[in-house]
Design goal:
heterodimer; A: 614 residues; alpha+beta; Serine Threonine Protein Phosphatase 5, Tetratricopeptide repeat; 2 domains; two-stranded antiparallel ribbon; 18 helices; 12 strands; B: 225 residues; mainly beta; Immunoglobulin-like; 16 strands; elongated; signal (chain B); DUF3823_C (chain B); DUF3823_N (chain B)
Chain lengths: 614, 225
Amino acid sequence: MKKSIITTVKTVLLACLMTAFNSCSDFLDREPDRIFDDEQVFADPALIQSVLANFYGRVMWGQHINDSYQYTILDEAGKSDGGPDNIQDYSNTLWRVYDYELIRNINQFLEGLRASSALEEGDKLAYEGEARFLRAWVYFNMCRGMGGMPIVGDEVFDYEVGMDVTALQYPRSTEAGLYDYIISECDAIAEFLSDQPTINAARANRWAALMLKARAAIYAGSLANYNNKMPSPIRTAGGEVGIPAELTEGYYQTALTTAEDIINNSPYQLNMTQPGNLERNFYEALSVKVSNSEVIWARDHIYPGAGQQTGFTRVNIPGSHAEDIDRAYAGPILNLVEAFEYTDDRDGTIHIRDVNGDYIFYDNLEDAFANKDARLGGSVIVPGALFKGEPVILQAGQKIWNNGSWQTRTSQPGDEDDEGRLITSTNGPNNSNEQFINKTGFFFRKFLDEAQGASTRGRNSEMWFPRLRFAEALMIASEAALELGQQSVALDYLNQIRERAGIQPLESMTLDDIIRERRVEFAFEDHRYWDLKRWRRAHIVWNGVQNNPTATQYALFPYLVVAPGTPNDGKYVFDRRPFSNSPFPRFFQLRNYYNFIDLAWQNANPRIVLNPFQ
Amino acid sequence: MIMKKIWIVLLPLALMAGGCGFDNYDEPQSKLFGRVTYNGEALGVRGTGEAVQLQLYQDGYELRNPIPVYVAQDGTFEATLFDGEYKLVTRDNNGPWVNDRDTTVVDLRGTTNVDIEVTPYFTLSDVSLALNGNALSASFQIDQVVEDGAVDYAMILVSKTAFVDDVVYIVREDLSDPEAGTTITQSVDLSGNGDFNAGAPLFARVGVRPVGKDQAIYSQVVKLR
């Protein structure tokens, strides 16, 4: 008995050892069927293209339509979904990009591509141009957040255990040095790339490279200019942050020349598909891909294909138009709406009270927004505006005239009074912690897809997200010319933008006109934050002071007037109020001008110096 | 016999499963207390939102991350640490004082007190804050310390908690161009404030923001009622 147990133990042990250390056939020695090695990839044009497609899918940062919350933290929109958002400060790592993995992958791609014999020389150069454009775009996104970061060139680093890593520890570039690198890369690849528009603007062409160059130059120029005009400029001893003032003019000149090249020689123009309806025209310039003549480079979305659609329309659509359970996640705020001018009045304040402080009565909801900049209707759904041919009713409640004063009556969304008149609309707005009802008084129009099924969970939207477009070339040219003292040139470009929007041309201008024009032209396009940063205005506009009109978010609540027997019965009035879901003013502090450097990066590479305020 | 052999198998297993104790040690017990001072007086700063920080470095380790030390609104700070030699430094460009990254070496054994001497752009003196009916009467003087320092603005702040600063307040009055060296008096009307009318406890302090700095300097908090 004893013996047999020992034998059993021994047998099992033996079996284990055999399985662990022996391999009798080459059954497991197989070529992987899901991993291609470099040799296979760069022998096949289709595979080369799919590697590049992967890179295009990895460059979505900052504000964009795949993350509606990011629109609500500045002064463009507010979050209606659920209860208040108590943010006060901005994170030290807000929209920080540090993607040397992608840069390394692009460099691996370049190495393989240059050695490949599967492509014609011209095609190889075109692919090289696109890859280097994307690499420059990565550096640009890092630079505007953190300042100068290490430039690794075309190097593909390899690491083996035990090697001396000090050779891999690159110091940070200066801020000016990194913008120079981006500019020189764009210059170098411009000739490699096609000058023709690409399908849905999804791939970069020569004009995208030049747009990036112009944008890098105007960023660098304004940083050199305005940082040094601060009472205590933000800089590091080694120039990793802070561009010397004497470089200002050179950068502005580069920006102007490059932008004018795009304006005069590119096949793009300000979109003018609907000259009879400028609101519609502006919507189509941004949100319709078919026969679009303005967008130069965009993140395209398409159906079908897993993960290749965007949920922006689904989560933000007005409840009255929703095709699924989701709706009304966020909406533009009154601050943005009032930044749009009237066609004949630069003060864009919505007229809700007369000089005596009494309500102004409007026959229709949308009348309060008559004669506004056409871009308002193209960017924002105002109360009563049409979407897909149906009006979007935004009504917070009724104002009832009772013994010489106004009483406010609200209800559950969609309820009517005894006379069958609507109290609170199903769309809102209201003050509550509920989901799926608007709280700002406005809905997004820009990037809201009109296609059937675009707001369903099963399908989602094919809406693209434009990153570079012709209007930006005009705005860069105008700003650069203004800073270089060429007022009439600057006015000419600015007025082209204003004419398309249907508002009066300007006869003289300052930087404040540029700031305002860019705010309304590029709303929701990931410009506002970076613009205010490079002009060093962010800490002034978002100064964290309660009731400061630029730091506090406001909503506009429309009401139906119930005053039987008076001429105002059935008309509409409006109340302006602090946006209930955003109780604290926006507070951008000096430390927010540059993202903090992660200390883990410094631990891995002691030559990385920290940013100011860190 | 079999039992003995089983132990031969179990012994390595027991060694693998056990073995804690050598690399564990007790939590830190030593206390570092300190104040941020000018001429021996603690300076009032913003105490919320981790706004004002000092940094502790300790040499001789592989990683170089500083330990953040948060300064409270009365200018004090404390940290619980292991015994050892530390380097204490203000955070770059942080705080309402002249940026100075000189190191203070702290030799921590048990409990240690340390004062960090800084040069604020201004100090506040003769601060008096009192309720006067429906108004707050404030009077204070801004004293210039750094010759080329300029005042961005001064502020009078009222809060319903003991935390009072440029973010946490219920009433705020900004004085855009206060003159240094003279007594400034200002009355702040509180009659429209809901918390005031509801009889909530009230606290107040005044602050002055130097141009180009990320923080304001404050007087000590006064309880109004």
